Hints:
By secondary structure, this protein is mainly β. The chain has helices at residues 49-59, 105-109, 113-116; strands spanning 2-9, 18-20, 22-26, 30-31, 44-48, 72-74, 86-89, 92-99, 125-131, 133-136, 140-144.
Amino acid sequence: MATLLGIARKAKKRDSVELLDEAEVSLDRGIDGDWRGRPGNRQVTLMTLASWQAACAEVGADLPWIVRRANLLVDDLDLRNSTGRKIRVGEACLEVVEETKPCHRMDEQHTGLTEALRPEWRGGVCCRVIKAGNISIGDVAEVALVAN
């Protein structure tokens, strides 16, 4: 099991990231108030602290996790090759659709960050919401055997 360490959203594309202590996750809006929350393959993004720390170590910088612009940060889940897995976070359940492929915009944040996020799914995963619910910092996050 892992713990939810961070929740973030952006009201619009390229907007600043807003940190939250809790959020409503819905089937039609993803993280409430996040511009990418509409239904689809990238409704919610999730990454791990260990992956972020490994990428930061590779570029020699101690960067805040929100530089990655993911929605959720958890401390201890193996996301490698996790397509199709269900992840429960608080009351919500997400289905991993694909690996988040880091783009050149990460190098706008710090030189070399794009490449540092590529190995072993360090950039995290893209998910769709399959069960709505509330999430809060400190909630358990775990790979679920079933969606409900």
